Amino acid sequence: MFATRIAKYARHAASFMLHFAHGGLLVAGLIVTLFVASRIANHGVQGLSLGSFTGDAAAVAAVDEIDPDLMQVVEAAPASAKLSPDLQRVKMYIAKRYQVSAVAVEPLIASAQQTGRSVGVDPLLLVAVMAIESRFNPFAESPMGAQGLMQVIPKWHPDKVDVKSDRSAMFDPETNIRVGALVLKEYIQSTGSIERALQQYNGSSDPAAPYASKVMAVKAALAQAARSGGRFVGA
């Protein structure tokens, strides 16, 4: 009976941790899971040594006694981290199209959603730029020094990011997306056109605007995926 109960609560703990992984709180989930497992184990050992086990009530009590500080970490998760239904479908499309983990890409899309809304840039445009620039690799770096998801060159934007104090700043997804969004917003305002802004973002003056065309094609595919339930639509 004890082994059955331990297995039952271990499954609940694993499911609990997966929930936090999807929300970008892997560390907090791991801490809470280990804490719960430890308390369950302790109750189990005590019960065996006394020749009895108090059953489900003991396990529930162990969960109730979780350190309040740990629960504060869990509750600190921003509600904005939850994807809209459309972006949930976009997430599944990206996972299939670019062969990346849906779990890993979810916080990136959530950051694009939140940043896009706060800065005033279409989140799908930010996601499309990430797809073209890095294929959702937050550690990408070009020979020219472009870094992270949106391949921002830090030395060109010292007003938006201080890499002298933190040389790894642009490899933080949220920072990279925020800076990339601010750059795009600035270029859109100065050029009056998303297409021209994208060409400037790419550092190209080609009148044919091939870079802008690629980004806008991906954005269109993402929009179609959002409408079609996330089914693979090519692009």
TrEMBL record:
Gene3D superfamilies: 1.10.530.10. InterPro entries: Lysozyme-like_dom_sf, Transglycosylase_SLT_dom_1. Residues 114-205 form the Transglycosylase SLT domain. Keywords: Membrane, Transmembrane, Transmembrane helix. It holds the Pfam family SLT. The chain crosses the membrane at residues 12-37. PANTHER family: MEMBRANE-BOUND LYTIC MUREIN TRANSGLYCOSYLASE C (PTHR37423:SF2), SOLUBLE LYTIC MUREIN TRANSGLYCOSYLASE-RELATED (PTHR37423). Belongs to the transglycosylase Slt family. This is Lytic transglycosylase domain-containing protein.
